[in-house]
Design brief:
heterodimer; A: 163 residues; three-stranded antiparallel β-sheet; 24% strand; elongated; B: 465 residues; alpha+beta; seven-stranded antiparallel β-sheet; 12 helices; 38% helix; 27% strand
Chain lengths: 163, 465
């Protein structure tokens, strides 16, 4: 059966930095650890300690599963700079592909939160006049994000068109 | 915002235009908005708790504070026109001094609330081009003054634009060249294209969408009251709030569409509508992003339809109906032939939705499969979808901002993909729902280049638009 994954755009896809998965793993791990401790202690206090241990084990299992799903999601991001447009694809369960022509770009911004800064990453947002089309690429290395931002704004200026 | 053009030597007589105030009644009109909501709340609290009298001082105080604030706002708001630039100073705590270059004006609307109509004043709104979709507002002026000023501003705006296009002329010399002459074409004076029939509008409002739900609930309500008279009080108390909500929504819709009259103008259309609160606005063809034909289930029986256009202009304050939404009806309720004629006018050679979605789409969208279809030609894409209400959307390929494809798990199993063509706006798009995956891939491969070609062709005809 054909699907979006079969789309042949003529160029190789570029994937975000491997640091992105490292960052997401740390973030997920922190959340998971908190959930395990919370579940274990709450059940342990209200019932007996082995029930608490069992609850912690169950949450640990769920967390392992969730981390695997997270890994697939993180690795699903990919983008491609074509001659006239930028393509971004992501999603595991629901696959989403967007094509944003450079000429339609209103502005590009690069954002880095505290976690991202620690891992040397940035997220790039491409804005058009259509609210739905705002293309996002997370987990770009700092130099790559800057290069992409400059390249996109240059191309956007060169091919800009009105509404 | 581009910097306003200022002449090098200040010789223009308009440069010394004195500051002007708004109409002294404007605080009353502004407070009137709160007055209505306060009155509704008062009414409901009276209905619900009939013995709790006397404590309406708070409500009165709210009105009083709003009135005082309004008067202060009026005192510190002033405006003037200098060299084709509208200056508005306002704000008590955040002092703002805005400059609106008239060369960037896209449209000028006149709006009147019910109270404003009684008092004979009107609000003037200037929509400006730009990513923010800025709106300059002068609330309120006398109606005659507002109309005069609008014509004057439109004439200046046109002069500024022409001057900008021709170049070579000294900036600032042309404004207000002939305020009286060019206005006749801007105000639709001839025979209107469409006038909405009130009877049809009433029937139409009650047989589609919110109106239909309200009617069904109302019938259920009456049946409940007659079947269980003992519980009448509880049912009545429970029914008041939803009833008010529905009534408000229906009223807004009805008032917005009441006697909707469309005139063709030089650049586009002029829309006038309203029973209590009236608005008059102009839409230029260039600003139209997509055209939508709506056919609710029951309307299809009657052979009726609604035609809407979505207009460019980003986030605007949601203070008033006419601004809050970017879609405007060109035909509120009308016969299908009329709707089709309007669409043919807006979208020359509109492609029909002739290619239905593959038969297997019925497993993913059983309720809407019978409506899913698309059509296309060199310039436009048409998409139809919906469950009870058939919605057909036409989008010009030259206006497409981005193309997106989504594929959920069920769709992947069935080999289906949904393709969206976004245009400027919040939820403005044509959705080609549940196309075959192979077909969708072909669309994704071909459409970007076709959109670019259309855009470039359009830019070549109208540079700078």
């Amino acid at each position: 059966m054909t699907s979006l994954n079969d789309f042949n755009a003529g160029k190789p896809w570029i994937r975000p930095s491997p640091q992105l998965w490292r960052m997401r793993r740390v973030q997920g791990g922190i959340v998971a650890a908190l959930a395990i401790v919370a579940a274990g202690s709450v059940v342990g206090i209200h019932a007996t300690w082995w029930w608490g241990l069992a609850a912690a084990a169950v949450v640990f299992g769920i967390a392992l599963f969730a981390l695997r799903a997270l890994r697939r999601r993180v690795h699903s991001w990919q983008y491609m700079e074509r001659d006239d447009d930028l393509m971004v694809e992501h999603g595991v369960l629901v696959r989403r592909l967007s094509v944003v022509p450079y000429g339609r770009m209103q502005f590009v911004d690069v954002v880095a939160g505290p976690f991202e800064r620690f891992f040397g990453l940035s997220t790039l947002h491409m804005h058009t006049a259509a609210a739905a089309s705002d293309a996002v690429i997370p987990g770009l290395g700092r130099e790559e994000a800057q290069r992409l931002r400059d390249a996109l704004s240059r191309l956007g200026q060169a091919r800009s068109a009105g509404l | 915002m581009s910097a306003p053009r200022v002449p090098a030597v200040d010789v223009d007589p308009h440069a010394t235009t004195p500051w002007q105030r708004l109409h002294p009644l404007s605080p009353v009109v502004r407070a009137g908005r709160h007055l209505i909501s306060v009155a509704v709340i008062l009414l409901v609290s009276l209905v619900q708790t009939q013995h709790a009298h006397g404590d309406h001082r708070w409500d009165l105080m709210v009105i009083g504070v709003a009135l005082v604030l309004g008067i202060v706002t009026w005192l510190i708001t002033r405006w003037r026109l200098v060299d084709g630039v509208l200056h508005i100073d306002s704000g008590l705590i955040n002092r703002s001094s805005s400059r609106y270059p008239l060369s960037r004006v896209q449209a000028i609307d006149i709006a009147q609330s019910g109270l404003a109509r009684i008092l004979g004043v009107a609000e003037l709104r200037l929509r400006l081009a730009g990513s923010g979709g800025d709106t300059a507002r002068l609330a309120c002026l006398t109606l005659a003054h507002a109309t005069r000023l609008r014509n004057e501003l439109l004439a200046i705006a046109r002069a500024e634009r022409e001057e900008g296009a021709e170049t070579g002329q000294a900036p600032g010399s042309a404004p207000a060249a002939a305020p009286g002459t060019a206005t006749a074409t801007d105000l639709g004076t001839g025979k209107p294209l469409v006038v909405t029939d009130t009877g049809r509008l009433i029937v139409g409002t009650l047989t589609a969408g919110v109106g239909l739900v309200a009617v069904i609930l109302g019938v259920a309500f009456v049946i409940g009251l007659t079947m269980f008279p003992s519980a009448a009080k509880a049912i009545a108390a429970g029914g008041v709030w939803p009833f008010i909500g529905f009534a408000g929504a229906l009223w807004k819709r009805f008032n917005g569409d009441y006697h909707l009259t469309i005139h063709a103008t030089e650049a586009g259309f002029e829309l006038r509508s309203g029973l209590v609160q009236t608005t008059s606005e102009t839409i230029s063809r260039d600003r139209i992003q997509l055209v939508r034909l709506r056919q609710p289930l029951l309307w299809r029986r009657f052979g009726w339809c609604r035609v809407e256009v979505v207009v460019a202009g980003g986030k605007v304050k949601k203070e008033n109906r006419a601004e809050g939404q970017t879609s405007r009806p060109l035909l509120a309720v009308g016969r299908l032939e009329v709707g089709k004629a309007i669409i043919a006018n807006l979208v020359p050679e509109a492609p029909p939705c002739s290619v239905p979605a593959p038969a297997r789409a019925v497993w993913k969208a059983p309720l809407s499969k019978h409506l899913l279809a698309m059509g296309s030609n060199d310039l436009y894409i048409a998409a139809r979808r919906g469950r009870l209400e058939a919605t057909t959307t036409w989008v010009s390929l030259a206006k497409v901002q981005s193309i997106r494809a989504t594929e959920g798990p069920v769709q992947r199993r069935l080999g289906l993909t949904t393709v969206h063509l976004d245009v400027a706006g919040v939820r403005a798009r044509a959705t080609l729902q549940d196309r075959g995956a192979g077909e969708a891939l072909e669309l994704l491969a071909r459409l970007p280049a076709r959109c670019t070609a259309c855009r470039n062709a359009r830019a070549a005809i109208r540079p700078g638009v």
